[in-house]
Design goal:
Layout: H1 8-19, H2 40-48, H3 61-77, E1 84-88, H4 91-106, E2 110-114, H5 119-128, E3 131-135, H6 145-151, E4 156-162, H7 174-184, E5 187-191, H8 199-204, E6 219-224, E7 237-241, E8 252-254, E9 262-264, H9 274-309, E10 315-317, E11 325-330, H10 335-344, E12 350-351, E13 356-359, H11 366-383
Parallel strand pairs: 2-3, 2-4, 4-5, 5-6
Antiparallel strand pairs: 1-7, 6-7, 8-9, 10-11, 11-13, 12-13
Helix pairs in contact: 2-9, 3-9, 4-5, 9-11, 10-11
């Protein structure tokens, strides 16, 4: 920090120059992110609400009430109007809270998760002192339920299933995991950070959408992120519990707040209300019908991409897309080389060891898909 400040116009000029290095969603080049440009209404509401703190409920009663409404809206979407929870910093904190509650509830020392689990599960297990057992996947990239069952012991604190894996958008057999959880009296957490705001609308659109939510009696908690397919500004990750009683083992009394005594079960004390209020505004403005239209459009482009990929020699879909996530593998050339060549043309995408991943988010347009396909064909001609 300098001794004397700069004129505001100078600060803005310098700021814009630095941020010019950032990719923009409008460019259509961002094809690997599970986030998108927030809705215009969400951006306005976010700015309007910047000074509000959910960590001091006595001062910001309206903001806290709005968070409760958002949680109830998500709960109804996920088949449990009585769900209890919070909107936190993201899926990582949401997953941490779920495992924290599960550990304290059961006193177990191990957690069983799919090999496809998000890295936040590894972080949470490490922070909580839990041994993380990774169950292998089947040929369809779902967790092997039989391997999960064999891994269960009297040390197990929780099972984890994924509803929309980060790598391929695959949904684990949550119904079967729920049965194991009920039989063994275990906590089942579903990481639906991405799929939670996709799968319910796919079902309403007539797609075959796997069961994953609170309709399954073994499910105790669900992660669902409004800042992904919910068109809400970052940070906004949702954690829902089947009932309020489940958070008691991680709830703390906070007596020193300006607004009076409060109870918290989130990791952070000070919590921005702005993204939560923005989520409320978007849910109200779009409704289920609006989200159905967004998901329908994303799936239309996903299917367009998948259909065109099937016509390109040496290109293969890793799995048939379950939602708006497409994995692409290649014959005769390493995926890393294809990814590097595409990145050199400006495309921002995800690459695994043997495939690349495209996420068709709301900011992606048909012209972007067509431009990507054109570049992919040209890249393959040079590499193969």
């Amino acid at each position: 920090m300098e001794e004397k400040g700069l004129p505001v116009d100078k600060v803005w000029s310098e700021l814009k120059a630095k941020l010019a290095e950032d990719l923009t969603y409008e460019s259509g080049l961002i094809l690997g992110s599970m986030c998108t440009k927030p809705h215009s209404l969400a951006r306005r509401v976010y700015t309007y609400s910047l000074d509000k703190n959910l960590g001091d409920p006595g001062l910001f009663k309206g903001s806290v009430a709005i968070e409760g409404e958002v949680v109830r809206m998500l709960g109804r979407l996920l088949s449990n109007p009585e769900a209890f929870g919070a909107i936190v910093s993201g899926g990582s904190e949401a997953n941490l809270l779920a495992l924290w509650a599960a550990r304290n509830h059961s006193k177990g020392s191990e957690v069983i998760a799919p090999a496809s689990a998000h890295i936040s599960i590894d972080k949470a297990a490490n922070l909580l002192g839990l041994k993380l057992i990774k169950a292998p996947l089947t040929a369809s990239f779902q967790v092997n339920v039989q391997k999960v069952k064999r891994a269960v012991s009297n040390r197990t604190a929780a099972l984890i299933g994924i509803a929309g894996t980060t790598s391929l958008g695959v949904v684990d057999p949550i119904e079967e995991l729920s049965e194991i959880a009920l039989e063994e009296h275990l906590w089942l957490h579903v990481d639906a950070a991405f799929g939670g705001l996709v799968l319910p609308f796919l079902a309403e659109l007539g797609y075959k959408a796997p069961s994953f939510d609170f309709r399954l009696k073994g499910v105790k908690s669900i992660t669902v992120d409004p800042h992904k397919m919910g068109l809400t500004p970052i940070p906004a990750g949702g954690i829902l519990f089947r009932g309020k009683d489940l958070v008691k083992p991680i709830t703390f009394n906070v007596p020193y707040l300006s607004g009076g005594n409060a109870y918290q079960f989130t990791v952070t004390g000070t919590r921005p209300a702005a993204p939560v209020i923005a989520a409320w505004a978007i849910f109200k403005a779009l409704g289920r019908e609006g989200f159905r239209k967004i998901v329908a459009r994303c799936m239309k482009l996903t299917n367009l991409l998948a259909d065109n990929l099937s016509t390109i020699p040496r290109v293969k879909l890793v799995v048939k897309p379950v939602m708006n996530v497409v994995g692409i593998s290649f014959q005769g050339v390493e995926a890393s080389r294809v990814a590097a060549a595409l990145r050199s043309r400006g495309w921002a995408l995800s690459a695994a060891s043997n495939y690349i991943r495209i996420v068709v988010m709301p900011h992606v347009k048909r012209r972007h898909v067509e431009a990507f396909l054109k570049d992919l064909k040209e890249v393959l001609l040079k590499l193969v």
